[in-house]
Amino acid sequence: MARKTQLLPKIALGVVGWAVALWIFFPIFWMVLTGFKTEMDAISTPPHLIFHPTLQSYHDVFAQENYWHFTFNTVLMSVFATGGALLLGVPAAYSMAFFPGKRTRGTLLWMLSTRMLPPVGVLVPVYLIARSTHLLDTIIGLGIINLLTNLPIIVWMLYTFFKEVPVPILEAGRMDGANRWQEISVVLLPLALPGIASTALLSLILCWNEAFWSLNLTSSNAAPLASFIASFSSPEGLFFAKLSAASTLAVAPILVFGWFSQKQLVRGLTFGAVK
Amino acid sequence: MAKVELRDIRKTYHAEEIIKGVSLDINDEEFVVFVGPSGCGKSTLLRMIAGLEEISAGDLLIDGKRVNDIEPAKRGLAMVFQSYALYPHMNVYQNMEFGLKLAGMPEPERRQKINDVAKTLQLDSYLKHKPGQLSGGQRQRVAIGRAIVRNPKVFLFDEPLSNLDAALRGQMRVELATLHRRLKATTIYVTHDQVEAMTMADKIVVLQKGVVEQVGSPLELYHHPRNLFVARFIGSPPMNFLPVTVRSVTENGIVVALDHGAPVTVPVLPGETASAEAMTLGIRPEHIVLDPQGEITGTIRMVERLGALTLLHVALPDGALIIVQTDGDHGGEVDAPVGLRLLAENCHLFDARGMALTKLVRHRLAG
């Protein structure tokens, strides 16, 4: 009897879980579906679920814009921003995790608070700085702004992972004669590798999907995939199918990447919570 | 090999002094154990010697050279941590090799050395294993091996056996003692387990609240504790304490009266003891014998049979409980009345400040 009474809430939870998952997934599903429709099918009401799939939108997209140019920019920018953020974040998180001072806690909170500011609030100063330093429409410029906006999250994540590394292991390294750099590179980093990998992964995804700065700080040379998508949104004419096709193309690589690394990502994001 | 000297070493954390001026000489080849209750500062003191904690004041000398500001690896020490602290991503061989590699030892020499040590520690068939694949005892051996290969002047052990089960702890205790006899390296060993301290040490340092209470050989501490704290801390089951009043001072010692029982003459130097002074008499469980004509009488409250010996928990008329050790075949029963005789020559007397009065005769093994 006891098992039966437990079964009901279990089923209910399952139903809720699936409903939420489908709710989240639906826009992506609809986007992919729309990409294979004709422009007419794409705007029809009520929407057609059964239609003749066509690759016309993809043909148009490839004919109109250089997809690989945007992808290349995005990859380069994401890798640059993530690498740079790790380079700054690892020493920062190391010192905060293992040599905390009176203000460490406050510094961490302050760093996070910078994420609470809507980016548009600093659009004008950032734009002006980028213009006067000739970083407008450059991969470096966009990379730097992505690096800086993601740095707080990266430091926070690394800090939590480093906190999980037993201090005596680092001390054993010190007793064995490791200097600071060897202690970090040979002892700490290999131990925190899963955490660092998921941090890097998250940063890559955030950079890849970032749109606000991409649209405001780049035009053509350094335009990433966010601009690629935006270029198919026009004030007149039918563009839903092309827009969907472009969006599908833009998110496909990171989606596949995320799919393959989901185990690592989930482990990283729930690290400590489930331990 | 090396001599370690501590000169008024102090440690201050957030304006609070945790180590309050420790001075100590640790001789070459000596096995010294720091023992004390948790929070007494013994681990902090060890970590200061290791160089993992800064020394707030005082001097630390190794072979006569001040090393306060020298980094850990350059002090010529090796440390074995309580949690073993092996590098989990390296195999046993790499764990032992790491320090040698950093010290710039050439590869053939390293291999020779590690293989030698692995053999003596029976680790030779595990060299390719990662720490995660080893049992607690094996991990402990790797940690010790990692310390030995570096050929340190001084070995530091921070409660190395506390994560092992009782049987393995006993075995490792013997192995460590044997190892020390063979390597003859100066060793500083921290533990809260007084059995480890008693069995392994050449010299025990009893610490309490950042202060050295007494330094001496195990039997010196056992038979001639300097104060109540050491008397209570060393020995298991612990020493019994009874309140007494001084009756008279004679050349054979001080005659004291128990609250309920006949007077006892304790053979100690009287010093400035005055008649009618209140004191504490200390006596170990094995120094009380069952005797119907004894000074005190009591009632057995509990019988603990350990096989080789029996511990009787006896309630005195005033309600105080004392422990009496008797032979394993003793047929004591709960609620039975017993007469007890205190072996006066083994009694200790502590004054009102808790300091022991010097005994007239030193124990022949106490050094």
UniProtKB/TrEMBL annotation, chain A:
It is found in: Cell membrane. Gene3D superfamilies: MetI-like. Residues 71-261 form the ABC transmembrane type-1 domain. PROSITE patterns: ABC_TM1. Keywords: ATP-binding, Cell membrane, Membrane, Nucleotide-binding, Transmembrane, Transmembrane helix, Transport. The chain crosses the membrane at residues 12-33, 75-96, 108-128, 140-162, 183-206, 239-260. GO terms for molecular function: ATP binding. It holds the Pfam family BPD_transp_1. InterPro entries: BP-dep_ABC_trans_perm, MetI-like, MetI-like_sf. Belongs to the binding-protein-dependent transport system permease family. This is Mannitol/sorbitol ABC transporter ATP-binding protein. It comes from Asaia krungthepensis NRIC 0535. The lineage of its organism: Bacteria, Pseudomonadati, Pseudomonadota, Alphaproteobacteria, Acetobacterales.
TrEMBL record, chain B:
It comes from the Bacteria. Coiled coil: none annotated. Transmembrane segments: none annotated. Keywords: ATP-binding, Nucleotide-binding, Transport. Residues 4-234 form the ABC transporter domain. It holds the Pfam family TOBE_2. InterPro entries: AAA+_ATPase, ABC_transporter-like_ATP-bd, ABC_transporter-like_CS, ABC_transpr_MalK-like, ABC_transpr_MalK/UgpC-like, Mo/tungstate-bd_C_term_dom, NA-bd_OB-fold, P-loop_NTPase. NCBIfam families: PRK11650.1. This is Mannitol/sorbitol ABC transporter permease.
